[in-house]
Amino acid sequence: MGCAYSAPAVAEPPPNRANSGLRKVQNAPTPADPDSPEALARDTYFTRDEVLALRELYTKLSNELHQDNLIHKDEFMWALFKANKDNLFAERVFTLFDIKHNQVIEFGEFVRSLSVFHPHAPLVEKAKFAFRIYDIDATGRIERPELKRFLVALMADNPDVDLDEVALDDIVDQTFNEMDLTKDGVINPEEWLALVQRNPDVISFMTLPVLTEVCKRWPTPKKAGPPPPPQPQQRVWEQ
């Protein structure tokens, strides 16, 4: 019977380290794409459809100034201000979005980082991200010079705000008097979170309601193409 027939066994070469390694690589399963719509939907507060919509937004932003499908810092600034200008806040956000630290924001980084700005993201996650924005030197604490740098940057972006050195120091002192509960001269993550929980409005910038409407804005409706050419009418012959 055909089913009972078996080919003669072929002797395998003796196992050795080189052979085993090659066989292991060949038989290893193909790793799943960590930036697939399904993976990103699982890892973030976006749905799969929202991830697909964000892909079109990302493609548009990543080709504004450089045609390489990667968001560079100048493209990030352009998206926020329609100008290639220095802004400390935007630079800090770009740095945190650039998870791989390669000076560009890839699509997976874009979606995962943007997720914390989603209205459904918990307050604690938003607070942690905001803390990292103000922690310019990445020391795990906010120090007086860092807060002062943000105040100076704020004045640079708002010509109507003009404070002298004394006024700036007074604002820093008042802020630390309210937030530095341990009076050690720095604001640690726990003190920051306590402030946010008392007054969530201090990080209102961390919520972008537009992200709940991403599927309504993208993908953009495709323009209707030209009507099809008229088909020749079939002539019906009378019997």
Automatic annotation (TrEMBL):
CDD domains: EFh. Pfam families: EF-hand_7. Signal peptide: none annotated. One of its GO terms (molecular function) is calcium ion binding. Residues 1-39, 219-239 are annotated as: Disordered. Residues 85-120, 122-157, 167-202 form the EF-hand domain. SMART domains: EFh. GO terms for biological process: calcium-mediated signaling. Keywords: Calcium, Repeat. Belongs to the calcineurin regulatory subunit family. This is EF-hand domain-containing protein. It comes from Chlorella ohadii.
